[in-house]
Design brief:
With about 350 residues, this protein is of the alpha/beta class. Helices cover about 45% and strands about 15% of the residues. The structure holds zinc ion. Zinc ion binds near residues 130, 143, 175, 204 and 205.
């Protein structure tokens, strides 16, 4: 075990002792959190990024939905989660014909949902990342990193962890095409299943090469920016956990379009992590986070150069640890209803 891992465990244990003193989370939850956070890493996620790059390389350089690179990505993710012991389903969603297609037939595409076999299915902690790329590139930072992060966390956690609340992972299709996959999923989810969602946590680009550290939830002036009540609590835990990895996150709004949109609209407490796209890093940010001021967080955003070498592996590592700890925190929380 590395010194870093030991230090993380100590930090988590210390955090849990404080938590116990105030009446939250249970000791069993502490063990889950400590074990999970010590087990996950950016290095562990890297083979998944390599697999996604390989899929793009053998399918015309992209993983866009609809398309063979996307279909191969669905198969890859489903098989990794199946082998890890999850209950895996590939739900379908319709692609609404848009300007891009002159064919008006409705296509049904698959996306992947996986859930732990343990934990109360009436109180579900959900995390998701979009699995499709744009047609112009392989989409390794956007959003191979979000996918690889969730696969690393899911495989270290295993399909039957000792959690109080079930954990569900989603790998959305057609995010780059008007958020079709996640929108259809939320809008067709029966009422009781929607009510069962404690929270939704979104990962969309978590390894930008000139990384920023942003968390979403509770920030802004209107509900579409802040998310529903409870969102600030998700963001607080994410920021606290990022702080244990050595960075102070900036809180930002839900304004950019990503898969949280339908969850926010449905009143489900939501949070998000992201490392930035086309905007430039400020001098102050570069001082705080490192990297280059006056340059884009990701100069390869939506381009052919969004390849495996377009990833800041430290940013990926930090976000994986923070998301893992956050999921473990809420999955073992004695108070599943966030306000
Ligand atoms: Zn994206």
């Amino acid at each position: 075990m590395t010194t870093r891992a030991t230090r993380l465990i100590l930090l988590v244990v210390a955090a849990l002792l404080v938590g116990c003193a105030t009446g939250s989370p249970r000791p069993s939850g502490g063990a889950v959190a400590a074990q999970l956070v010590a087990g996950v890493s950016g290095d562990g996620a890297f083979p998944h990024l390599q697999a996604l790059q390989g899929i793009a390389d053998s399918n015309g350089g992209n993983r866009a939905s609809p398309g063979p690179g996307y279909e191969a990505s669905v198969d890859y993710v489903a098989s990794v989660l199946h082998d890890a012991g999850y209950e895996v389903t590939t739900t379908t969603y319709p692609v609404i014909p848009g300007e891009r297609r002159d064919d008006t037939r409705q296509l049904m595409l698959r996306q992947v949902i996986a859930q732990t076999r343990t934990g109360d299915p009436e109180d579900v902690v959900m995390a998701g990342a979009h699995l499709d790329s744009v047609p112009d590139g392989p989409g390794i930072n956007d959003n191979g990193t979000g996918v690889a992060a969730l696969l690393e966390i899911a495989t270290r956690l295993g399909g039957s962890p000792p959690v109080d609340h079930a954990i569900r992972f989603a790998f959305w299709g057609s995010e780059e095409d008007d958020l079709n996959g996640s929108t259809y999923y939320v809008e067709t989810l029966p009422g009781p299943d929607r009510d069962a969602l404690m929270l939704y946590l979104n990962l969309d680009m978590v390894g930008s090469p000139n990384a920023g550290y942003f968390v979403q939830g509770g920030q802004g002036h209107k509900p579409s920016q802040t998310g529903p009540p409870g969102s600030a609590e998700v963001a607080r835990v994410l920021a606290d956990q990022l702080a244990t990895t050595g960075v102070t996150a900036t809180h930002t709004t839900f304004d950019r379009a990503s898969d949280y949109t339908a969850f926010v609209a449905a009143g489900i407490p939501s949070g998000g992590v992201l490392t930035g796209d086309t905007e430039d890093k400020s001098a102050r940010e570069a001082q705080s986070w490192g990297g280059h001021a006056g340059e884009a967080y990701d100069r390869c955003y939506h381009s052919a150069c969004d390849r495996i070498d377009n990833v800041d592996r430290t940013a990926l590592d930090r976000n994986i640890r923070a998301v893992a700890a956050t999921l473990a925190h809420f999955a073992t929380s004695t108070n599943p209803r966030l306000m």
